[in-house]
Amino acid sequence: MKHLKLKNLLMALVAITALMSCHKDKNDVAPTPTAGIFVLNQGKFGGNNGTLTYYNYADKATTADIYASANGAGLGDTPNDLKVYGSKMYVVVNVSNVVDVIDPKTAKLIKQISFDKKQPRSVAFYKNNAFVTSYDGTVSVIDTATFAITKSITVGRNPEQLVVSNNKLYVANSGGLGATPDNTVSVIDLTSLTVTKTVNVILNPVAISADAYGHVYVISNGDYNTIMPGISIIDNTTDATTSQNTVDVGYGSPFVVNGDFAYYLSGTGKVVVYNTKIQVISSANFITDGTTFKAAYGLNVYSKTGEVFVSDAKDYKSVGTVTAFDKSGKTEYTVTTGITPSNIVFLN
Amino acid sequence: MEKLAFGINIKRNYYHDTLKIGFAIFLILFSSQLKAQQDTTHKLKEVNVTSLSAPNVQTIVPVQQISSADFSHYAALTVADIAANFAGVNMKDYGGVGGLKTISVRSLGASHTGVLYDGVVLNDAQNGQIDLGKFSLYNVQSIALYNGQAPGIVQPARSFASASILDIKTIRPQLTEAKPYLISVGANGGSFGLINPYLQWQQRISKQWSFVLNGNYTYANGQYKYKETGDGSDTLAIRRNSDIKALQTDGALYWAKSDSNKFKIQFNYYNSDRGLPGPVIYYTTASNQRLQNHDLLVQSAYEYIAPGSFHLLINSKYSQNYLHYTDPDYLNNAGGVNEHYMQHEFYQSASVGYHILKNWEVSYSSDAALTNLFSDVYTSYYQYAFPTRLTLLNAVASDLNFNRWHFQANLLSSYIRDHVKNGVAADSKSAFTPTIAATFLPFKSSGLQLRAFYKDIFRNPTFAEQYYYAIRPRILNPERTKQYDIGVTYQKSFDGFVHDVAITADAYYNNVHNKIIYLPTRSPETPSVTNLGKVDIKGVDVTLKTNVIPAAGWMGIFSLNYTYQQAFDVTSPDDSFYKNQIPYTPKNLINLNAGINHGIWGLYYNGTLSSSRYYVSNNTAQYYLPTYNVSNASLVYKILANKLPVNASFEVNNIFNERYVVVYSYPMPGRSYRLSFQITI
């Protein structure tokens, strides 16, 4: 009798479970990207929830995580860089220690390159090679045809972004994980693939970019305390630092060069426009319709249209947004992304 | 720069299947003791039936209690496994023998649960949360959960200062001159490479003096298989770096002239070394982080109750918590993270009660605590604050019985002041916070009772929230909670098939404001910890407990706890998650415990059913965690072997091998086995 009762209870429990377990489908059906925007979302650090959002221009539809939809697997933890080279897209996934090579037309994974324990951060390209910085103080050279790592070049501590200019590779050595940050940029000769010079810049350099006038711009975070963030400029012929100025620039802001203008985020999330030809700030805020952000984080410019895209990481724990501004600085539309949207890439 | 890993994000895990030894022991045990079974059967029958006593649920605030006699019904290893069964409790379990386990009561957050260890609140000033997985059950007499606070009014002021209280009471010798000692030796082992021997020695020294000493050692490799689908592999992976070695020793010396004039001094020392497996991160190898803890607690209590009028309670405590955290994979130029933390607390409390009338007692309690934290965390741009915190708490309370009414109220005054060696100390804080509670018996001896309570309380920012990597001073206010509860209880004993029934149903509304939120911003210039959050919680807790005697010599127990919680984030209508359920909070949660015992055998089932949850603030499909249903069973065998009580049990956790997570990326173990054996002399 008591056994019967117990059995009934178990049955009831099972029934309740069945009722409660109407699983929601986690994966949307992967659309075929035609023309639109990819947004890389870092997710929570250590949260293993980096995602790749896709926004399609034609039907204005958003796919929350096109990588997961196309591959049936997540990106991993803290994807930190997204770039297109030729017909392929590269995702550098920092904490997961991989570089994913993706077909942007399908979002399908072509090759996953392991960087175990190296903590890869950023990627740049030059003549069929991909160059990947890792927090272990190296730049790895990857053959873009075979995806094999052909060489590892030792640079400074905790390198972040890197840029090619005048047949040289400039690597920002942040030293950001150490008790004392670094303050150098390593210059790598792209023929010999060796470090030829180490240039001093403002403490804790992270973002790096180059214009068509021989300037390499380095954005440094300073020490968060007494040394303020600023921009150092390196001359790409002499490889000497020509200026180091404390500037109102947001921590970790990208520096995006588009023709004669460069864009970066100020400490309060304004989009500052800098004239690279005459080396002056041409606008304190590109945005003209009064739009503000909770935590302006990523930035990119679509060169075809002059549109500016700004991502808002909000509280870094819930979903963010990317807002598109037309070339006059007025809001066109806003797309909901994943957690901590950082990189914006255009698919033509 | 992602170094702002907050405090120490304690991440760890579990162990896997090595039940071969277990089975061997089990078989030996059975064959040798089947004979002994027959002649002791009818003796034990009587013992079992007479020991049936239902804990009182008709208290002024909701109380749920499980005592040591019933621990074996839950296939439990630690206090966490027991506490998870209470209605209104949401356990955050990072999985595994060494995995962090904390409880949030009625969605208020784990930092709002005060943990009482023999009457004195345990304090973790750094992280504000007590890992209940650290407490083994061998020395525990009972575990109770109080919503609001404990029902009595003569208690330390700090006991009034949490939104809810988990009360752990240790075993106290009850020995006679004829048998002045009691020694229990036992061991526990099974899956995850778990080996867990323990010893308890209770001794009566004289009519007034006695002591108890406990020691237990836990070792487990902690490995277990889990199924990973999120990386596309769809195979069974093994959870690694989840080993633990822990030694817990504790003891107490008791002096009692009578029940109303007694003193005790006790200590508890916990020493552990464990791997922190961290979250499962796709495509990369396991973490190599490790954590060592050395926790020492020494406390004393003196209680004097004069007949009819005066009641005095004095508590003193010293505690230290040492923590050593290493991560060799962290790519700084020092070759990894190597951090040490040391917390000290000096605590003194005095509480007096006085019966103005026979049915009216008033009390006053006054507490002082001095807490500090040392650490060797530093960078060129940040120096550790070395905070010292003085907490002064004073409470007045009143308890009045009037006709069929029972009223209780107290007012707590808090004053908190910080001192720092580096940087800027937080402003001092003071507040008055009340609690009011009442019960009413609508009909005489019907077994029905109505109750209600209101409590307003706060928690101060922890040292981690206030100072950890606070390169700029953080302006933080205490996180405040308000609780409104109304409930009905029914309790009755019968002579018949149903021996007793206890039913409680409470509906509550809570809100949290100034919720302290950690923002992992990349810009340390803006505070990374803010007071932004607001949460509105509406919930229902229902408990049903009954003991039945279906036939002579048989006894059945049945206990069902149900929790409904709607916990909405109402921080701002502008948020994308406005009015979404807060992370990790199931709407429906059911805990069921049922069993039957006959003579020397007992068979028990324990199940938890949790509805789906979301692991971030947004309730969208992407961040969905599915429902899970976990069942445990225990087979308990109790005999007298040569007049010595012998207990053996075989426990299966997660019988149906459910693959699930409580915390995203922290997979829980599948089916596991444990065998335990104890002999008392």
Automatic annotation (TrEMBL), chain A:
- What domain of life does the UniProt record list for this protein's source? Bacteria
The record's listing under Pfam families reads:
DUF5074 (PF16819)
Cited InterPro entries: DUF5074 (IPR031815), Haem_d1_sf (IPR011048), Host-pathogen_enzymatic-act (IPR051200), WD40/YVTN_repeat-like_dom_sf (IPR015943), YVTN_b-propeller_repeat (IPR011964)
Signal peptide feature range: 1-23
> In its keyword annotation, does this UniProt entry include Signal?
yes
Q: Which SUPFAM superfamilies match?
A: C-terminal (heme d1) domain of cytochrome cd1-nitrite reductase (SSF51004)
Q: What UniProt keywords are attached to this protein's entry? A: Signal
Q: What is this protein called?
A: 40-residue YVTN family beta-propeller repeat-containing protein
Source organism? Mucilaginibacter polytrichastri
UniProtKB/TrEMBL annotation, chain B:
Single annotated GO MF? siderophore uptake transmembrane transporter activity
- Keyword set, alphabetical order: Cell outer membrane, Membrane, Receptor, Signal, TonB box, Transmembrane, Transmembrane beta strand, Transport
Q: Which residue ranges does the record assign to the TonB-dependent receptor plug domain? A: 58-150
Bilayer topology: Multi-pass membrane protein
Which residues does the UniProt record annotate as the domain TonB-dependent receptor-like beta-barrel?
253-655
Family annotation (InterPro entries): Beta-barrel_TonB (IPR000531), Beta-barrel_TonB_sf (IPR036942), Plug_dom (IPR012910), Plug_dom_sf (IPR037066), TonB-dep_rcpt-like (IPR039426)
Q: Does the keyword Transmembrane apply?
A: yes
Localisation per UniProt entry:
Cell outer membrane
Would the keyword Glycosyltransferase turn up in this protein's UniProt record? no
What GO terms in the biological process aspect are recorded for it? siderophore transmembrane transport
GO annotation, cellular component aspect: cell outer membrane
PANTHER family per the UniProt record, alphabetical:
HEMOGLOBIN AND HEMOGLOBIN-HAPTOGLOBIN-BINDING PROTEIN 1-RELATED, TONB-DEPENDENT OUTER MEMBRANE RECEPTOR
Q: Which family does it belong to?
A: Belongs to the TonB-dependent receptor family.
Name of the molecule in the record: TonB-dependent receptor plug domain-containing protein
